[in-house]
Amino acid sequence: MAGNYPSFQNPIPRFQNYNFASTSSHHHQHHDGLVVEQEENMVIKEQDRLPPIANVGGIMKNMLPPNAKISKEAKETMQECVSEFISFVTGEASDKCHKEKRKTVNGDDICWAMANLGFDDYAEQLKKYSNRYRVIEGEKSNHHGKGEAKSSPDN
Fold it and tell me: Which of 46, 22, 27, 39 is nearest to 94 (CA)?
């Protein structure tokens, strides 16, 4: 399987300069079975730090044959991995924005970060999706802008 993804064989040299450590005080505590992080008087509960396990499990299940089962441990492991991946890519995009003196990370920054971190194939697919999304949203805006009321304030 590793042969199918040559860019994933040895990510250490490409990522060795990435700073995974927080620059502020960072403490882990165990409380009632939940890991919490304290950072500058802010407490983050594990369920707030991680994507919902039901969503992670649902995505995993969609990739497997209908009769396949997924252990709780596998879902929890994937949940942690997804959270780390999101933090990793977002951190790279945030660094770019900081260097450019911008405060808002946008979709193009995420695509750039993914490509910059070696996830070129995923970045290309994400760019295509993002472009399609913008076209659809533009069409919705044009349609609603012609005198029709929006169906809800979220549209």
Answer: 22
CA distances from 91 to 88, 109, 113, 121 (A): 5, 10, 9, 19
Residues whose CB falls within 8 Å of the CB of residue 3, separated by 6 or more in sequence, listed in order: none
| Whole-angstrom distance, CA of residue 134 vs CA of residue 114 | 19
**What global pTM score does this model have?**
0.61
Model confidence over 97-145: pLDDT tens digits? 999 999 999 999 999 999 999 999 999 999 999 999 999 999 888 877 6
Instruction: Count the Cβ atoms, other than its own, within 10 Å of residue 92.
Output: 20
For domain 90-148, give the fold.
Histone, subunit A (1.10.20)
Q: Are 49 and 56 in contact (CB under 8 A)?
A: no
Domain boundaries, the chain: 24-82, 90-148
